Structures are given as C-alpha cells and as structure tokens.
Amino acid sequence: KSPRLSFSMPSPTLSRGQLVEITAGPVATPDRWRKDGADKGPQDVNGLQGQLIEFDEEKSEWTIATFSADIVAAQESCIRPLTADDLQDYDITLGPASDTGVMGAELTERLSDQGYAVCRLFVAPDDLEEMVRTADR
C-alpha cells in the first residue's frame, strides 16, 4: 500500500479578501509578517475584525490583516465571516487583499450617488494618531 497524503484546503465559505471577525484567541503573528524586535508570543485578538490574506495549507490556518494593521494567523474554527449588518457603518473597505477593480467601481458609484464615501482603512493606531495630528495643523 502506498502512503496516503493528506493536506488541508480552506473552507468553501471563506476566501482571500473576505472580511472576518476573530472569535477566539490568543493567536500568533506568522514569522514572515513579524516586525523586527516584535514579541513572538501569542496576542489576544478575540473580537477584532480584519481581512483574510492567505491560507496556509500546511498549518491549516488563515493569515488575517486586522483593521488595526496587525497580521495574525488563526484556524478557521476561530473565524466568523462578517455580515452586511457588521459593515453598515462604512461603504467600502480598503485592505491589503482587496480587489482594486471592485474597490474602484464601488468607490466611483458611491461618489457618483452620494458625493462622498465612508472608507475603512487598515491603519495602526499610532499611524492614525499621526495622520490626525497632521490634518489638524
């Protein structure tokens, strides 16, 4: 008998670019995304929202960019897809795995219909504070 190969595939209900909530923690930042000098230990991200970047078949987990610009990895069982109700406060999300064609079309439609668009960006809290200080000058 030949040995059976097994590997994990992502769930058909989750896909790259999808917006999700992390429903359990703590989780770790994958090595390739860890900043120099960053803590290698797991962090509590339960309840944070973000975007699926890639699926690691070997580890059977998704890499997620959170709205606070952290990159973490979590098993599918710890991820809940966001619903329309979860996203009602903004028109479009501009994330690292967003489809630029879809984003451009949505942004153009909102600007044409409303004259403005409410966008959700993936920005670290420190960077956001600096942007606000710059805008206040």
Descriptive overview:
- The chain has about 140 residues and is of the alpha+beta class.
- About 20% of the residues lie in helices and about 25% in strands.
- It contains two helices and seven strands; from the N terminus they run E-E-E-E-E-E-H-E-H.
- The strands form two sheets. Strands 4-3-2-1-5 form a five-stranded antiparallel beta sheet, with no helix packed on it. It has a two-stranded parallel ribbon with strand order 6-7.
- The radius of gyration is 17 Å and the shape is globular.
- The termini are far apart.
Strand content range: 15-25%
Could you say which structural class the secondary elements and strand pairing correspond to?
A: alpha+beta
Number of helices: 2
Mean pLDDT: 81
Give the helix proportion (percent range): 10-25%
Quaternary organisation: single chain
Q: Supply Rg.
A: 17 Å
- What ranges have pLDDT less than 50 throughout 5 or more consecutive residues? 1-7
With strands numbered from the N-terminus, the spatial order across the biggest sheet is 4-3-2-1-5
